[in-house]
Amino acid sequence: MKNLLTPRPWVLLLFVLLAVLGRVALPHWPHLPNFAPLDSLALFGGAYFARRRWAVAVPLLGVWLSDLVLNYQYLGHVQLFYSGFYWQYGTYALLALLAHAGLHGRVSGLRVAGAGLGAAVLFFLITNFGVWLGSATYPQTGTGLAACYAAGLPFFTHSLLSNFFYCTVLFGGLELAQWRFPAVLARPRLVRA
Q1: What range defines the domain where residue 68 resides?
Q2: Please, which residues have CB within 8 angstroms of residue 107's CB and are 6 or more apart in sequence?
């Protein structure tokens, strides 16, 4: 058996809260659409929360709460859900589940970078398909779907950049914090060698 350190739940919740607050306080920093910590939040939750239900529920709750605040800021009223929200939220849940399967207990810089790239690709493919499906803007043909994906390419670039930035902040920040304050932030976990 070997002794590993795992983050305490309150530390994970603190990092999720900081990402959510960052999204609300700096919604368009650095003024790029889709530059937000949402994919990274799902990956982070999947990688670090021990139970799958928390790995999915905590990031989704963070996304929803920040959506409520941002919708109020921009619309002037509370909107519980927006049109097509299920495509985004479903993608975040999928990302959290994939991260739980692929990163949980096996976090490394290379794996996180790969997950950030994969998350941007999945988000792009799924959510743009959702925009196209039943759209009055794009014809319901292969050409219409291709046009929808082409229109989404600038957003893909921003999502990719934000995933690398926020994955570095979340995963790197947690690793740095645990390295600096191991007794406070982490608890030992015995695993079979």
Answers
A1: 2-191
A2: 47, 48, 171, 175
